[in-house]
Structure formats: structure tokens, C-alpha cells
Amino acid sequence: MPAAQSARASATKTDDTLLREVVEGLSQVHKQLPSKYFYDSAGSRYFDEICQLEEYYPYRTELAMLPGIADDLSHLIRDQRDVVEFGAGSLVKIRLLLQHLPQIKRLLPIDIAGDHLREAAAELRREFEHLEIVPIVADFTRQVELPDRNKVKKLGFFPGSTIGNFTPLQAVAFLDRARRSLGAGALLLIGVDTKKAPEILHRAYNDKLGVTAKFNRNILTHINREAGGDFDEDKFDHYAFYNPTQGRIEMHLISREQQVVTVEDYQFAFSKGENIHTENSHKYTPEEFLTLAAEAGWRGVRKWLDDEELFCVHLLQA
Ligand code: AVI
């Protein structure tokens, strides 16, 4: 199974950050966990499986759009010679761009999962012999120093609608940091999931095989391993719904019973039916997204929508 584009905003950290963020999240009146902790190796595999599901339209829709977009891009990009992929993962989607963009001389893929990134880069090198590939192991949600900023113009690439996993405020902050990292004259190609019939969204996050449920529950096992927790996955139900007021899918874990969970020296009491909010996945109309991007100093150059308007890819200019 091809590995999907990674959403490893900031994957496993064995330092105190995970414990601190978990304790902070579970101490809130409305308990929550950062969705970046979905992506340990099991979680990344579940996400790859989700991307192959019939119900999960975002991955396959964007993937099918990319060759045509890349063809258009070859006429739209001017003197950009570097491509920078944020949260590069397995470098599946970037291939489709590179095949149509011979003017690109260097690829700078950014991902926190160093080993995985280096392996994917080595494989890509065999396919694109004339392309320089410089993997950058970093948390792309922070400011990343890129080589030759302002000297070699850059095309940023952020597929998969991972932008939707940020709140709108965080999304503006990310887009602003990305603009500064990419430097003068940059372009950004970004995939954004659109607003659509709630039933389609509901199906995408409540698949029949229950892969999304496993993906959601796995965050607890990840926390057990990394932060000394004793969560029992079987005591939590997956619950995902579209919240039309916020324009987002929300994923939650619902406690099946009254229970107390220990994470290192901390204890957290759950009543039966109490929830942990684990993920938001914001959906934007093309216009809403362009307004958001404008707040971060980007203007829209072109957008591509599939026939059913399930997914939108925007080309932005700094
Ligand atoms: C990575 N991200 C864009 C996915 C999404 O759709 O928000 C993560 C995901 N969550 C449940 N299914 C997929």
C-alpha cells in the first residue's frame, strides 16, 4: 500500500513536551488531546489505510487532480527552482508535481520523522537523478530556516488539507510563518478540503471498516507508551460529527464508563459519556480560505476544483 502524505505536524517526541501537552489537555474542563499525537508508527499506518478508503475522498480526489495541476503549474511558475514540502512524509504527491516541472532543481522536504524522510528521499533520488534532494528534519509548524532564502525562489507545497487540522487562527499563523520561511517571490500550492453535504463528511470520518475509529483510539495507546499512561482503548468509543457552526469535523473519544486514568503521576477522572476532543478538521469554501490566506499576506493566483467540488487546490503568491 502506498504511504500517504503525512500529517505528522509534530510526531512522537519522547521528551517532556508530550507529557506536558497531554496533562494540560486532560486538565481542561472539556478534555482534549493534540491531534499531532495520532502519528506514531501505528497511527501513521492507520492514516495510510484511511487514505485508501472509498469513503475518505480528500486523499484520492487531490491525488487525481495533481497531474493536471502540475501541467498548468509548469506554465505558471516563473523562476522558482526549489520546491519545499511541509510535512513531506512519504513523498508520494510531490512525485506527481516533479514529473511535470523540469525547471525545479532542488527539493527541500520537511518532516519531523527523520528516518522515514531520509528513506523516502533516497528512493526519490533513484527516480529523479538530476534533482538535488535535501531532507530537512524539523517540525514544520515552527519557523524553519531554509537554505538560500530570498536567493533561490521557492514553491511551497502543503497538500492533503492538513491546514484544516489547525484552528483558523493557527492556520493564519502557519501561513504567515511559511511565507517568511519561503522568502521573497514565493508561491504556495496548498490543498484545502471544501464545505459540502454533511453526509459526505460524516461518511469520510465514520468509515464502515472502522479504520478511523482505530486511528482515533490509537492516540491513547501512543500516550500510554510515551507518557506512562494506563488508558484502555476499549473503554472509549470513536465519535466524529460535522459541526456546521464551526465548519469542521470534530473527532472525540467518549468514555464508555466512569473511570480513572493515570498518566505518570497524574490522575484523570472520567464520567460515563464524557468526551476527549482529539481533532478538528476544518472545511473552507474557496472564498473563505482566500480570506484566511490574505490575513497571512498571501493572495490567490489560481485555484483548481474537482468536478464534484469536493476538494480545492490553491496557488498563492506572497
Ligand atoms: C491529516 N488530516 C488532513 C486528516 C483529516 O482529514 O483531517 C486526518 C484525519 N482524521 C481522520 N481521518 C483523517
From TrEMBL:
One of its GO terms (molecular function) is L-histidine N(alpha)-methyltransferase activity. SUPFAM superfamilies: S-adenosyl-L-methionine-dependent methyltransferases (SSF53335). Signal peptide: none annotated. GO terms for biological process: methylation. Keywords: Methyltransferase, Transferase. It is an enzyme of class 2 (transferase). Residues 20-317 form the Histidine-specific methyltransferase SAM-dependent domain. Its EC number is 2.1.1.44. It holds the Pfam family Methyltransf_33. Coiled coil: none annotated. NCBIfam families: egtD_ergothio. This is L-histidine N(Alpha)-methyltransferase. The gene is egtD.
